[in-house]
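Researcher: Let's do a round of design. I'm pasting the structure tokens now; please hold your answer until I've finished.
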């Protein structure tokens, strides 16, 4: 197969959802279809259950499983599909954001009874920032759900994206009859069978007025469907794939993941419309996947679970060319040539050493502590991929050394954990103290636990009251200097030495933005 053919047949995506909407269940069903797993439950345990926030064993267990399920690759009808897993717990949202930089599209799962929830909204913001194409799957229709038109309106309004249903449900909850596929014009009758890997009962109904429909679902529901479909065709424009690819229009499907209902149709449509690897932006130019020279970037680093081995796995997304085992590549940040003797690929439950990988694929690289998130690899060109931002943290604590004899271990541990993207480190301009900023509170426990177990260092947290940290810059040097002087007690630098303003309250932040018009306040590290 040529490089172009390999690119064209690849689909790299993530399933995202508010916790409990059914992300894990849907992922699992997709894998079952792909023949990548054979039993239900293989992916199931990959999340921190609610209420387990202080259970360190649970965190460790989750880390172990999430290495295995970080990337789940499988073949389906000639396509090579890579599903990138994202952590379920919202305290790990930043991990999810970074994973979204490595996908070419996403499937958003929404609980039909709950509609759009907080985490869905946040994740969609990240998709919008990157114009990532999204498909919406409304799940749990076997339970009493909101009305489909209300759900469609809600998605449109809350997620700020135009929608186009490609299937439409017939009732829901106890009277759920099935889903009518609007583009293939067939009816899938609802059956509840978790083990099936094909939708059981599908009937061709190209003419909705046929008596077959009444016979299958009863006159009342048949009439309802007829008027719903008429409304859909009247209200929504025909599906426009280009608008979907631009991230402006989301096709919507309905189903029930746990009953394996509507999943095949989702997958069939997905492989047809979802994009293959797309051009990736760097600081200097766009990189086309079909360029012959290999380029890629690290979007995730995973520490080894074994405290005796401080090795890590860096996840490299291939952006162009062919990645080859034992070939020298330039690690752009250090300027070093590196080659990898055992790069791994992930096929659902299995990890195996690979010889080559293509754009869209994720390769696991063995790392002894040299790589950072965002690192670029090339065949010599000094590129730096962009769009892998850190987000303004929202929780802060001073970190103090709790064991004076272990100062070095602590410094090293903090350094490596920050490279992994677990949290962000700031140094206060006021007193030089180190401040750790995270997206969720759970991270502090994770850091403390890992410092002890992996680095033999111990730390202590001390409270600090900060509302938000944001990066600042300005072309007006005088105003910037004035700002830094006045806000001296609230200034810090990040690990790259950039200025960071630590606002005490939302009011203080708003006031600063109001009073210092020439200063730009950034809420992600990339600007
Ligand atoms: P998440 O990864 O998005 O957090 O959600 P997950 O797939 O774990 O699903 C959350 C719960 O919703 C699970 O129940 C799952 O069985 C259920 N679920 C998923 N899809 C459907 C569906 O189509 N219909 C119905 N009725 N339920 C669905 P749980 O009780 O939390 O877990 P379990 O004990 O069933 O494993």
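Researcher: That's everything. Go ahead.
Model: Designed sequence:
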């Amino acid at each position: 197969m040529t490089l172009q053919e390999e690119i064209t047949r690849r689909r790299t995506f993530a399933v995202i959802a508010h916790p409990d909407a059914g992300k894990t269940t849907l992922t699992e069903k997709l894998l079952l279809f792909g023949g990548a797993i054979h039993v239900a439950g293989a992916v199931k345990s990959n999340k921190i259950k609610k209420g387990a926030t202080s259970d360190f064993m649970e965190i460790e267990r989750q880390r172990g499983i999430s290495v295995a399920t970080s990337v789940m690759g499988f073949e389906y009808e000639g396509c090579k599909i890579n599903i990138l897993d994202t952590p379920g717990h919202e305290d790990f949202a930043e991990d999810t954001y970074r994973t979204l930089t490595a996908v070419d599209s996403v499937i958003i799962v929404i609980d039909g009874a709950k509609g759009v929830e907080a985490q869905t909204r946040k994740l969609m913001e990240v998709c919008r920032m990157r114009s990532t194409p999204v498909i919406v799957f409304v799940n749990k229709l076997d339970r009493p759900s909101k009305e489909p038109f209300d759900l469609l309106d809600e998605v449109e309004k809350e997620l700020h994206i135009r929608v186009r249903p490609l299937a439409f449900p017939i009732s829901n909850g106890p009277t759920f009859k099935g889903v009518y596929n609007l583009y293939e014009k067939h009816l899938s009758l609802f059956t509840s069978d978790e083990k099936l890997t094909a939708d059981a009962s599908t009937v061709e109904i190209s003419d909705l007025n046929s008596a077959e429909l009444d016979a299958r679902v009863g006159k009342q529901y048949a009439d309802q469907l007829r008027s719903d479909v008429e409304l859909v065709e009247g209200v929504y424009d025909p599906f426009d794939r280009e608008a979907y690819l631009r991230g402006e229009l989301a096709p919507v499907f309905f189903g029930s993941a746990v009953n394996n209902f509507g999943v095949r149709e989702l997958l069939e449509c997905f492989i047809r419309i979802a994009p293959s690897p797309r051009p990736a932006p760097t600081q200097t130019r766009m990189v086309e996947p079909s360029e012959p020279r290999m380029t890629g970037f690290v979007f995730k680093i995973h520490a080894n679970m074994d405290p005796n081995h401080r090795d890590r796995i860096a996840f490299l997304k291939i952006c162009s060319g062919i990645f080859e085992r034992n070939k020298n590549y330039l690690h752009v940040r250090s300027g070093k040539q590196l080659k990898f003797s055992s790069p791994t690929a992930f096929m659902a439950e299995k990890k195996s050493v690979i010889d080559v990988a293509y754009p869209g694929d994720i390769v696991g690289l063995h790392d002894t502590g040299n790589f950072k998130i965002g690192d670029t690899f090339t065949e010599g060109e000094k590129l730096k991929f962009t769009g892998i931002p850190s987000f303004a943290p929202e929780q802060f604590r001073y970190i103090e050394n709790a064991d004076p004899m272990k100062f070095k271990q602590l410094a090293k541990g903090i350094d490596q954990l920050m490279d992994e993207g677990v949290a962000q480190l700031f140094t206060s301009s006021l007193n030089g103290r180190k401040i750790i900023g995270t997206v969720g509170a759970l991270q502090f426990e994770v850091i403390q636990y890992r410092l002890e177990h992996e680095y033999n260092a111990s730390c202590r947290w001390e409270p600090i009251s900060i509302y938000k940290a944001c990066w600042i810059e300005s072309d007006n040097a005088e105003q910037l200097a004035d700002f830094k002087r006045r806000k001296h007690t609230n200034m810090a630098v990040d690990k790259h030495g950039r200025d960071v303003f630590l606002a005490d309250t939302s009011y203080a932040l708003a006031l600063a933005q109001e009073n210092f018009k020439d200063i730009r306040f950034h809420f992600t590290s990339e600007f």
